[in-house]
Amino acid sequence: MRRYAEDTSVPVAKSRAEIDKLLRDWGCAQLQWSDDFKRGRAQLRFVWEHEGHSYLARFDVPLPDAEALKKHAIDGRNGLVSERKLQALMDARGKHEHRVLLIWLKGALNAVEAGIVSPEVVFLAHLEGSDGVTVAERAIPRLAMLTQGSADRLLADGGDDG
Are 47 and 54 in contact (CB under 8 A)? Predict the structure, then answer.
């Protein structure tokens, strides 16, 4: 099965601009992109205002490293890694991932608009607390507890509001 936008030629900057516009049109108050070249990831953070509250959402976009790309940089003539092909692949990193993030956000926001799902549900896992940890990062290690009882077990304080 072919992956969506697998061979896209759309530059990362264009995808980011489309994501920026989409989120601005949706009413986001702030938006930030950052690139961590050392760790091989990009990050999108945005502030979303809903019913009198401001929520910070974060999406980490992992980018393949040179080791992962080497298998696609093999020179068919000699079976060795082509440094030229590898560099071209490294330069193109993020094109596919940013297109996928864009299509996911478009789909999610269209589902919200159609009343299929609430925006809280769409972005819940990506909401970031003041400690920089997302709901997903806090909850995923505790998901097994969910099968052992109430969803309250996922909350650090046992589900109390206090």
Answer: yes
